Amino acid sequence: RSEKAKDPKSALTKAAIAKLLDLKKQYKEKAGKDYVPEAASAPSVAKVPSDVQALCSEIEAQGELTRQEKAKDAKSAAAKAAIAKLLELKQNYKEITGLDYKPGQTPPTKSQASASTPSNASALYAEIEAQGDLVRSEKAKDAKSEASKTAIAKLLELKKQYKEITGQDYKPGQKPEGSPSNTADVTSDDAATLYDQIHAQGELVRSEKAKDAKSEASKAAIAKLLELKKLYKEKTGHDYKPK
């Protein structure tokens, strides 16, 4: 516009127009549409968030370490620590993406991760069920105890989160829409890892009960063990049985 105002027929004007046409052509090739003033936008490309990619790499490395430690001694402290770390990383992955981690599966893009509410709701539903069991257990012992009050407060907090995610109140026996099948996508590695974690938690329970069967540490360890066994049944379709 500036060059045309000076002299529409000058060499500079012609060069500027040629350059403009070339740029518009490049824009159309890249964006798949004509350039429109004030409405230009870069073409969208689905990208996997860098934090998810990094987490996948960390899970793969931890999985390799876990296999190495189990090959040496599946019952060693190092093997148990590696398994616990692997499960923690997989849990982080699920919290970020709303999906279970699966070896070799391409991490979800931002748009896919944001569309994973059903998985988040299903996980929260299962957590509420487990917390409800704990509340009933504590109330049966002493409804006015601190443990009961803490368990109830946690249950109410989980139910509040559930309503925020699904837009509806939690109702026992009424799973959220779009809930995935518990046994459809479980892998043998997942089941084996969970089995090992239950075994390790069982050892911890026995250790704590030997010290003081009525201690808070014992109660917490037992509650965790029951939660893991319940999760194992949900994932595999059958009860956990020690080898």
Descriptive account of the structure:
The chain is mostly helical and 243 residues long. Among the domains are: 50-97; 121-166; 189-236. Helix content is 70%, strand content 0%. It contains nine helices and no strands. The longest helix has 26 residues, at 117-142. It is elongated. It starts with a helix and ends in a 7-residue tail after the last helix. Residues 39-48, 112-117 and 180-185 have low confidence and may be disordered.
Uncertain runs are 39-48, 112-117, 180-185
Radius of gyration: 28 Å
Mean pLDDT: 78
Residue share in helices? 55-70%
Strand content: under 5%
Compressed to H and E, one letter per element, the order equals HHHHHHHHH
Largest sheet descriptor: none
Please identify the structural class as seen in this structure: mainly alpha
Shape assignment: elongated
How many beta strands in the DSSP annotation?
0
Alpha carbon gap, first and last residue: 82 Å
Separate helix tally: 9
Strand and helix map with partners:
Blueprint: H1 2-6, H2 11-31, H3 50-73, H4 77-97, H5 110-114, H6 117-142, H7 146-166, H8 188-212, H9 216-236
Helix pairs in contact: 3-4, 4-8, 6-7, 8-9
Q: What attributes does this structure have?
A:
mainly alpha, 9 helices
Gist of the model:
This protein is an all-alpha fold. It is built from 9 helices and no strands. It starts with a helix and ends in a 7-residue tail after the last helix.
